[in-house]
Amino acid sequence: MAQKTTTYLVIGLVVGLIIGAIIGVAVAPPKGVPKEEYDKVKSQLEELQAKYDALKSVLGTLPEDGVIKLSAWSAGSPVDYYRAENLKRAAKVLEALLRAAGLNVKIEIDSYYEHVSDWGAWKSKFVAAYEAGEAPDIISGIDMAEAAEAGWIIPLDEYIEKYSDVLKDIPDYLWDACKYKGKIWGVPQDVASQVFYYRKDVLREMGWSEEEVEALADRIAAGEVTWDDLMKIAKEAMERGLVEWGFYHRPNWGTSLEIPYYEAGGEFYDLETGKLVLDKKALKAMFELFYKMAQEEKVLPDTMIGTSWRQIHMGFVNGRVLFWLGGSWHWGEWQKVEYHEKLGKLPESYEWENIGFAPYPALTKGGRPAMTTGPWKYYITSQSKYPEIAFLLCVFATLPPYDADHALTSSHLPVRYSTLHYKPFIEKGGFLYKVSQYVAKYGITKPIMHPKWGILKEILLEHLVKVEKGQMTPDEAVDSVVRAAQAELGEELIVRG
């Protein structure tokens, strides 16, 4: 009798669930099946169904062989390769978790990394792949606002809410930098910070005492030593034949060139309206600084824009340049790339002995120095067959051991608070710890979420070249930038001052 009842129960339950699913109403147990027993088994199967549905939503449509294949494109400097490697490690973690849940699946990720200096070419490569229907599941190194507007990437708010428990130690300001039009489009991968570098050994050759050399960073941070003061020091070093140039800056547009603009009170983006901004007063201050360096004091080459990155790094690493407007990641790059003509890759001990670092100096005495900071981001493309899996890979790629490996290798700041307490990071992250202290005091985050920011950057770069070459005065450049930007951007631009 018991066997017969069980048979009725199973048959009735299966039929009942099928019918219930179709008509959307509860179905009574079949005749002869106790209601309590029916409800118990029905509840168990519904729970299993819910778990199956949840996993199905994550996995998407599984291939017959149970192998989930994804691809990821990452880019950056020669030392940012963990952006790709950590996704591979994350795939192993996620695969193990899914198998522990009873799913015999395998996750394979083709995680490609490229050292990129021409970001326009990198974007074009991605767009070509996207238009051919062959975009990777994960992409980094493209403009978020443009990608969101073009439909290349998807918003991630649903997943971020779903997996909030494993994201709690990523600071809110990093997520804020991933927002555009009220949605979150990226997963923070690391934190870049601009760092102002100087040659301690050259300062010693100039007759500075060890105490004076070591005190320079604090004096810059206090607003006691300004850009003008450093130009005087640079000019003296050049006149004495100790360096070829006083200053080098990057060869293309980047946030390090924007810092004087921000220090003068300027903004390039209005959060309330979502429009681009040009502040004429701040723009003039920025152009005046670089004009003075290149044309008046002649401590900066007027050919900086377009100079190769390798030539720039070799100039500073070999002590031919006194001051470098760089970023935190360069500290790690110098240890991994053979820029020094005798040592090749620099031992970190050499860096501590010969290279100092500080926030970017203030424009005026007593002014506030600055460091811009913001996250590098992973994006999930709209062509991904497994967007939730791709999202989880991006999340697991920043687990503290992986976050620390990337931070220590590339000298980017970690994205997770927990990484700061991870023992290997504490033991080896002296440089990053000091930079983090500066960021806490002087760091500013200036996310620019506009799809036409690239147009404005090109206009700014074009005019910076003319200013540094002496082809335009700062006043002329400001007027010309405003006219060109208004013509290109129209109502999408706000002009202040």
Textual characterization of the structure:
It is a single chain. The chain has 497 residues and is an alpha/beta fold. The protein folds into three domains: 2-52, no CATH class; 67-190 and 374-433, Periplasmic binding protein-like II (D-Maltodextrin-Binding Protein, domain 2, 3-Layer(aba) Sandwich), CATH 3.40.190.10; 193-372 and 448-496, Periplasmic binding protein-like II (D-Maltodextrin-Binding Protein, domain 2, 3-Layer(aba) Sandwich), CATH 3.40.190.10. The chain has 21 helices and 14 strands. Strands 1, 2, 3, 6, 7, 10, 11, 12 and 13 form a nine-stranded mixed β-sheet that branches. Strands 8-9-14 form a three-stranded mixed β-sheet. The chain has a two-stranded antiparallel sheet with strand order 4-5. A hairpin with a 4-residue loop joins strand 8 and strand 9. Helix 12 packs across helix 21. The longest helix is centred in the first third of the chain and has 25 residues, at 35-59. The N and C termini lie far apart (91 Å). Residues 1-27 have low confidence and may be disordered.
